[in-house]
Amino acid sequence: MNYKDLAAFLDASPVNFWAVKTVTDHLDEAGFTALDMRDAWHIKPGGRYYTVKNGSAVFAFVAGEGPAHSPFKIISAHSDSPGFRVKPNCEMLCDGNIVKLNTEVYGGPILYTWFDRPLSLAGRVIMRGADPLNPEWRLVRFDRHLLTIPHLAIHFNRAVNEGNKLSKQKDILPVLGHVASPAHANGLVKRLVAEKLGVSPDDILDYDLSLYDTTRASVVGLNGEFITSGRIDDLSMVHAALNALLDTAAKPDRSTRVMAIFDNEETGSGTKQGAASPMLDYILRRITTAAGGNDEDYMRAVSGSFMISADDAHGVHPNYVEKQDPTNHPTLGGGPVVKINANCKYMTDADSAAVFLSLCERAGVRCQYFVNHSDVAGGSTLGNILTSQIPLRGVDVGAAIWAMHSVRETASLTDHADMIRVMSQFFTV
Asked: How far apart are the C-alpha atoms of 12 and 80, rounded to whole Å?
């Protein structure tokens, strides 16, 4: 795998909406047909299709060539990453006519990693349209270094290096810049967006804007073995799933191969575009129906299906080995990671782990395990949330990374290439 492809994917996807656009651009180029959930679906065996939800989740599939009860092969991941969302009426005027923005923390970022670096804004803008129930919307992205979050100088807090509790409302608000007079502060962001899009500020009804780090993805390490970037969790797995689907799309298969990229995993998945919604269930049912099947066929299909839930894992940290489980140390460069939790925070069990291990063997790829240290409560991810909607067999996996939820995370390039190989093996087995 050429690292430049992954780097370009990460750089093109500063927020969830842009990540989905990046994915759909690749799907369009590969001959996939966009489907609207409001329309009737006419699906041909072997056809390539995708549908988008809320502009921030995307579901692509290659229709199987077997009977309606043929199983699904599913790879899931998520488009969102922790960070900061811009609030309405966000401009706050400070001394010297300097404007800072009122923001809200999204998910669980490592807050202090966002200080003192060039930042900008990206997201979607909702505009007035002919139908009030269906307003128009457009994507917006400022490529220039637009903001920064300056840290308080050590001279005002000599104990800063001994631990510094941060207020999400006070300490981490980004500075936008000077305005000529106080009157210019109100509506400044809307005017900037309007100018960028070439529309009137009066036509903008609302927006979903987030901060992002403008520093590009880069390769580091003695042998160029690591990639460091924002949003590796979980866009690296989105990129891997997309490549596996595109690489295998031309190969005939009785099963329908599905890539499901959800939004809002970082906040619990409880949205219409999240994994806790019935979205995937609806799509799989419609695929079965379009193939001439009924409820019985759908239940048979689900019973024979398998899902790889792909969300990055914690690699053992060279400075904090004691934080990991004593006998399971997933390393960067050690291959894909199977994630296991005795309290079912992950969907993995011995059966599904064995399936993934077998796929790794066939692909010629090493595999490793992540298990929480028993004194540390771990998080959950897409797998067990999805199985509350659809009783799928499946496994939670990921690539080992450092500094998960930092503004910049680090991953192994060989692990990423190995994950693509295993996912491609899954889609063709």
From this structure: 14
User: What is the rounded CA–CA span in Å between residue 248 and residue 415?
Assistant: 20
Q: How many CA atoms lie within 13 A of 32 on its CB side?
A: 27
Nearest to 363, CA basis, from 371, 355, 352: 355
Q: Is the torsion defined by CA of 86, 240, 276, 134 positive or negative?
A: positive
DSSP track, 204-229: EEEEEEEEEE-SPPEEESTTS-EEEE
What are the φ and ψ backbone dihedral angles of 312, each rounded to 5 degrees?
-60, 155
Residue showing tokens 């050690």: 334
Strand 48-53 relative to strand 57-62: parallel, antiparallel, unpaired? antiparallel
CA 48 to CA 388: how far, in whole Å?
28
Give pLDDT tens digits for 371-417: 999 998 777 788 889 988 899 999 999 999 999 999 999 999 999 99
Q: Which of 338, 335, 328, 318 shows the shortest CA–CA distance to 412?
A: 335
- For residue 274, the number of C-alpha atoms closer than 13 Å in the C-beta half-sphere is 15
426 and 359 Cβ atoms separated by less than 8 Å: yes
What number of other Cβ atoms are within 10 A of residue 33's Cβ? 14
Distance between CA atoms of 213 and 18, rounded to whole angstroms?
14
Contact 20, 79 (CB under 8 A): yes
pLDDT given for residue 258 in this prediction = 98
In this structure, what token pair is assigned to residue 113?
Answer: 């990693």
Q: What share of the chain is helix, strand, coil (3-state, %, to 5)?
A: 30, 25, 45
User: 413-428 and 3-11 helices cross at what angle (nearest 10)?
Assistant: 90
Q: Where are the beta strands (DSSP E) in 243-385?
A: 256-262, 306-310, 313-314, 337-340, 368-371
| Measured distance CA(212)–CA(299) in Å, rounded | 42
pLDDT digits (tens, 9 = 90+) for 295-324: 999 999 999 999 999 999 999 999 999 999
Identify the residue whose tokens are 């109100």.
186
